[in-house]
């Protein structure tokens, strides 16, 4: 969405040729089938998580109890945003420690 907005604002400056701009949009676009498939899967997952969370909060029970801890796992993963921030934080700490080790060895 930002790309479309930026293209309308800065299109003449960034891409003086309209043909080049059209080629970029075609190269960056997905096919309709792929887009609707991804959209359908994500929509289904969101609805499933919403129903599970609603049932757990309001009725203190799970509609999908036969799946066992799967619904709790999905709830935790979505609640922590796929642990992306935790993974990035851990990786950055390891990278910093690695660079400190290299800097220490380079001094001597």
Describe this structure in words.
79% of the residues lie in helices and 0% in strands. With 108 residues, it is mainly α. The protein has two domains: 1-30, no CATH class; 31-107, no CATH class. The mean pLDDT is 80.
What brief labels describe this structure?
108 residues; mainly alpha; 5 helices
Quick structural summary:
With 108 residues, the protein is mainly alpha-helical. The chain has two domains: 1-30, no CATH class; 31-107, no CATH class.
Topology, please?
Blueprint: H1 2-14, H2 18-28, H3 32-58, H4 70-79, H5 84-107
Work out the count of structural domains.
2
Low-confidence stretches: none
Give the number of helices.
Answer: 5
H/E element string? HHHHH
Rg for CA atoms: 23 Å
């Amino acid at each position: 969405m930002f790309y479309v907005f930026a293209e309308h604002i800065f299109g003449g400056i960034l891409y003086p040729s309209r043909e080049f701009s059209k080629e970029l949009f075609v190269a960056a676009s997905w096919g309709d089938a792929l887009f609707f498939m991804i959209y359908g899967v994500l929509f289904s997952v969101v609805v499933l998580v919403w129903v599970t969370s609603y049932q757990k909060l309001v009725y203190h029970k799970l509609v999908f109890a036969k799946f066992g801890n799967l619904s709790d796992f999905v709830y935790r993963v979505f609640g922590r945003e796929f642990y992306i921030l935790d993974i990035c934080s851990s990786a950055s700490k390891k990278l910093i420690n690695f660079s400190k080790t290299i800097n220490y060895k380079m001094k001597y």
